[in-house]
Amino acid sequence: MEAANLRLEMTPTRAVGRLEEDLGLSTVELAAALGISARTLERWRA
Q1: Does residue 5 belong to any structural domain of this protein?
Q2: Distance (Å, rounded) from C-alpha 38 to C-alpha 35?
Q3: Is residue 26 a part of any domain in this protein?
Q4: Contact at 8 Å (CB) between 27 and 38?
Q5: What is the pLDDT of residue 3?
Q6: 1 within domain boundaries
Q7: From residue 26, how far is each of 2, 3, 23, 44 by CA, in Å?
Q8: What DSSP string runs through 1-46?
Q9: For the whole model, what pTM was predicted?
């Protein structure tokens, strides 16, 4: 599949929120699970 034909099924903001809800994790816990800082996760949410 060519890159030009790819599309996101949901926005990063929605994906972060869904992960937090589905897994029952806080922002800090989700960031740790992903191996990123909480600040990076907040940027994805913005």
Answers
A1: no
A2: 9
A3: yes
A4: yes
A5: 63
A6: no
A7: 36, 33, 9, 15
A8: --GGG---SS-HHHHHHHHHHHHT--HHHHHHHHTS-HHHHHHHH-
A9: 0.73
* Domain of 18, in residue numbers: 11-45
**Structure tokens, 12:** 């990063």
Angle at 40 between CA 35 and CA 44, to 5 degrees: 115
> Which tens digits make up the pLDDT trace of 1-41?
566 677 778 888 999 999 999 999 999 999 999 999 999 99
Counting the structural domains of the chain, the total is 1
Per the listing, tokens 């699970």 go with: 33
Cα gap 11→46, rounded to integer Å: 10
Per-residue pLDDT at 13:
92
